[in-house]
């Protein structure tokens, strides 16, 4: 492999990142549109219906005016699944993602939200120390790079919760913690959104899994039937709380509940909640080994 | 639940007192944009706001804008931020400056209910995240002060058919947020028993 190929491929990753960030902010995916439409049809409270009608109008206006769905351009989060034979090292993939994020921010222009966490000084065009954030995953027998950009708004990210339940709390403890977290969050995370739940692993990994859960297409189910059943049960329970759209009361408190899990220590039972607002922005692409980029609105 | 059209700044306080939690409101006229740092400057650092806030509707926002000339800005995308962080400014905004309405997303905690009832103020809930629509309802950025706080400056917007907003807290001591939480807490006890 020549140095030239590597540079071209890094450039392709940068292009893909820049496009994905802006695309995600402007055009919400079809599965989310369907979920929002179903919510509007199901809601019976007057303020709740008003909220869901307004959301529908907003998505139409964003499409028509090519404007951002929400003004909060978020913190740029990517998921990168690197094929075993993809000919660019993750260290270079990261550079491409960072440079693409910065370029999109400057060229559009987008609001720059990134600050030093203590001094609160702005660190530049939505990049900084350890920003953007990348979730890495690897795939055997593949020469592709699968990228997903999930700009994460602060209103919903501020509604993140972790509890180290004990094994004796069981699955009831998990359900109870998710319920009390979502009721406590009320209207602040812009409901109805997607509740991401991470269970098992360790404290940090549970929250990592909760974030992976909100990245999934709306309404997909965990391949483990035991976990998928928990997703169904939590979804039904959460929509019995009556918090409703924007916390104004109603039938639809959440669009979905996704759970990701990892096996854990026999004495651990961690549960993490990461909320994604109704404007659950998400955009994906596949970069081939030769640098061709195929964008995918459904992944 | 009634629908009201209000023009700000409000001249007749009766128009605010007539609103009830759950009612729909459409706004015309002027809206003042304000955020965390703007209010910290007014109340914690003791700086007088350069705009008259009597009868005003405040909006919790930090807009995406483009500077077209010194001190002149064009909108790019204007949305609304979470209000709960700024609840402690409610009472002094009403008492010292005569603010009549605060618009934001996600609601105010119960601390806002009493000052709003005492001072004849309301909380108007907007749909968070619906910034593309909100931007089309802001006709013009008329003025800006404290540009050093960009984007958390003091903004003056002219709006047309701004909304629909929902009265989240009225001036009679009613709060949709308090009611929704009370019902949800009772429901939680029932749900826990079923787990």
**Overall mean pLDDT of chain B:** 97
Q: What is the H/E string of chain A? A: HHHEHEEHEHEHHEEEE
Regions of chain B with pLDDT < 50 over 5+ consecutive residues? none
Count of DSSP H/I helices of chain B: 6
Largest sheet of chain A: 5 strands, mixed
Strand-residue fraction of chain B? Answer: 25-35%
**pLDDT averaged residue by residue of chain A:** 96
β-strand number of chain B? 9
- Oligomeric nature of the chains: heterodimer
**Termini of chain A, distance in Å?**
30 Å
Q: Please describe the biggest sheet of chain B, giving its number of strands, its sense, and whether it closes into a barrel.
A: 5 strands, mixed, barrel
Which sequence of strands runs across the widest sheet of chain B? 2-3-6-7-9
Distance between the termini of chain B: 36 Å
Shape of chain A: globular
What does this structure look like?
The complex is a heterodimer of chains A (299) and B (195). Chain A has 299 residues and is of the alpha+beta class. In chain A, 41% of the residues lie in helices and 20% in strands. Chain A has 8 helices and 9 strands. Chain A has helices at 3-26, 30-42, 46-65, 90-107, 154-157, 170-185, 203-215, 225-238; strands at residues 77-83, 133-139, 145-149, 160-165, 193-200, 254-262, 269-276, 283-287, 293-296. In chain A, strands 2-1-3-8-9 form a 5-stranded mixed β-sheet, sandwiched between helices. In chain A, strands 4-7-5-6 form a 4-stranded mixed β-sheet. In chain A, β8 (283-287) and β9 form a beta hairpin. Chain A is globular. The two termini of chain A are 30 Å apart. The mean pLDDT of chain A is 96. Chain B is an alpha/beta fold and 195 residues long. Helices cover 28% and strands 33% of the residues of chain B. In chain B, the strands form 2 sheets. Chain B has a 5-stranded mixed beta barrel with strand order 2-3-6-7-9. Chain B starts with a strand and ends with a helix.
């Amino acid at each position: 492999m020549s140095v030239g190929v590597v540079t071209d491929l890094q450039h392709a990753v940068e292009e893909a990142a820049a496009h994905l960030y802006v695309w995600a902010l402007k055009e919400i995916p079809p599965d989310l549109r369907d979920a929002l439409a179903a919510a509007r049809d199901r809601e019976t409270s007057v303020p709740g219906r008003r909220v869901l009608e307004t959301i529908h109008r907003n998505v139409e206006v964003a499409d028509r005016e090519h404007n951002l769905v929400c003004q909060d351009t978020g913190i740029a989060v990517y998921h990168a699944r690197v094929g075993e034979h993809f000919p660019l090292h993750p260290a270079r993939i990261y550079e491409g993602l960072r440079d693409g994020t910065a370029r999109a921010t400057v060229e559009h222009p987008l609001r720059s939200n990134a600050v030093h966490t203590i001094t609160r000084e702005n660190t530049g065009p939505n990049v900084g120390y350890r920003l953007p954030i990348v979730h890495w995953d690897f795939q055997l027998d593949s020469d592709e790079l699968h990228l997903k950009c999930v700009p994460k708004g602060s209103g919903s990210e501020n509604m993140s919760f972790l509890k180290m339940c004990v094994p004796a709390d069981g699955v009831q403890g998990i359900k109870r913690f998710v319920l009390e977290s979502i009721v406590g969050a009320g209207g602040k995370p812009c409901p109805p959104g997607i509740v991401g739940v991470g269970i098992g692993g360790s404290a940090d990994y549970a929250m990592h899994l909760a974030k992976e859960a909100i990245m999934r297409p709306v309404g997909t189910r965990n391949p483990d039937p035991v976990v998928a059943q928990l997703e169904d049960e939590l979804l039904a329970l959460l929509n019995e709380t009556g918090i409703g759209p924007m916390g104004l009361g109603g039938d639809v408190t959440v669009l979905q509940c996704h759970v990701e899990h990892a096996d854990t220590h026999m004495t651990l039972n961690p549960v993490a909640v990461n909320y994604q607002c109704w404007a659950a922005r998400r955009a994906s692409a596949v970069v081939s080994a030769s640098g061709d980029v195929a964008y995918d609105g459904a992944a | 639940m009634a629908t009201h059209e209000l023009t700000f700044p409000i001249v007749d306080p009766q128009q605010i007192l007539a609103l009830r939690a759950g009612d729909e409101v459409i706004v015309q006229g002027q809206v003042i944009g304000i955020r965390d740092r703007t209010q910290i400057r007014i109340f914690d650092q003791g700086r007088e706001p350069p705009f008259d806030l009597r009868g005003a509707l405040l909006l919790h926002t930090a807009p995406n804008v483009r500077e077209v000339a010194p001190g002149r800005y064009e909108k790019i995308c204007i949305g609304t931020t979470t209000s709960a962080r700024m609840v402690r400014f409610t009472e002094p905004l009403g008492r010292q400056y005569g603010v009549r309405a605060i618009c934001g997303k996600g609601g105010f905690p119960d601390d806002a209910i009493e000052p709003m009832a005492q001072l004849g103020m309301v909380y108007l809930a907007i749909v968070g995240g619906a910034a593309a629509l909100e931007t089309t309802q802001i006709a013009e950025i008329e003025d800006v002060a404290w540009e050093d706080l960009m984007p958390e400056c003091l903004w003056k917007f002219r709006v047309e058919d701004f909304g629909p907003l929902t009265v989240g807290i009225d001036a009679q001591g009613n709060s949709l947020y308090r009611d929704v939480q009370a019902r949800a807490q009772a429901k939680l006890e029932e749900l826990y028993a079923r787990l």
